[in-house]
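Troubleshooting entry. The earlier prediction with zinc ion gave an output that would not parse, so I re-checked the input for stray whitespace and re-submitted. Clean input:
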Amino acid sequence: MRQKIGAFGITAFALALVFAVGWELGRTGNAVDPISDAKAAGGVVKSPTGPAPDRYVYYPGSEQLGTNEIRVIACGTGLPAARRSQAATCFLIETGNGDKFLFDLGTGSMANIASLMIPYQHLDKVFLSHLHTDHMGDLLGLWAGGWTSGRPNALRVWGPSGATPEMGTKYAMEHFLKFVNWDKVTREYKITPIPGQIETTEFDYRKANQVVYRENGVTIRSYPAIHAGDGPISYSLEYAGLKIFFSGDTVPNKWFVKYAKGADLAIHEAFQSAQQLVDFYNQPPQLAWRACCEFHTSPESFGKIMSTVKPRHAVAFHFFNEEGTRFGIYQGIRSTYSGPLSLATDMMVWNVTKEKITERMAVSVDAAWSVPGTARQARPEKGRPNPSTKYIESGRWVPGFKAQDPMLDKHMKKYKLEKLDWRPAMYKALKGK
Ligand SMILES: [Zn+2]
Ligand SMILES: [Zn+2]
């Protein structure tokens, strides 16, 4: 049942319906057995009033991850064109030792990540498969959103080199910081500088099975991929004897087929079919053919890869997963692969242990706030030049400014902030206005 639900990626509403039906039928745990309950109660069937069984749903923050367990959450599974129901590529992997890793950070994915209410302190490790914006567009959101929401540390970004230095991750991150220079300089002054820094680790995209990260029992390796140009890579993550593969974007390639053999969870792209790209994505037939099959993997090829690699569970992503498309994708994959399969959509969750792999949908809040971590941001650094000039500062309108004094007095008192009160100096500077 779960398999089927996942394969068709139904919405939270439909989930609730299935969930209610499962509950009603008494198939979901030991709490409900309407027939024998009715007999015991002398023929009266009572509706359940206790906790609902949770086997179809993952509620973030409600479940302890086992020491030898991995949880994978799809925070983006779609395409470069933005859509509210599906962000671009992003997978969050949580390991039982308490570590968290973001594999790609596609446009729109930060809203899904934020709904998991993980302290930004722990969302500081990003592994990029390649530098297409649908795989790194929400670096902006994590970088600035985390900075204003209490992340005390710098961001750490791993990614491949390119055929030339300016096609590599290091160049991209250096120039990312140039692109956001105004944002960076103003926040460095007003908040604190460290969370605005990016520590980049660039590694050779040509090496297969090379270790790019090894800490606290987690090993991450990279493999070359074939997609659009030199640079793209795939990753594997090993923890507690479990192995997760993430293809990034690629056509079928020999490295994935060789190294992902027997993986516990094999996440590989399966692109929209050529026909779907023409029908729904406004692509001319010639481009549709190339997009589906010259620099991406078709559903049929995805199936062939999986029936060769034989993972414990296969996950297909990188297509808009909806009523009009998923059956075609499913049929394509099933023409070449009959093993365990998820057609990924945003907020799909897999828990992986030696014993079993479960697939569920995460149900999380839309209006999530950040959650405090254990470490606090450093105070603003002294001696940094104020990004505002005297000309602009002299434009403050004092009566409007003073209107907030009673509210600020209360705030200062409540948090014992008297020593930090900048108002006397400010009013002095504005004297005469
Ligand atoms: Zn790409
Ligand atoms: Zn892509």
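This one parsed fine. The two ends are 72 Å apart (CA to CA).
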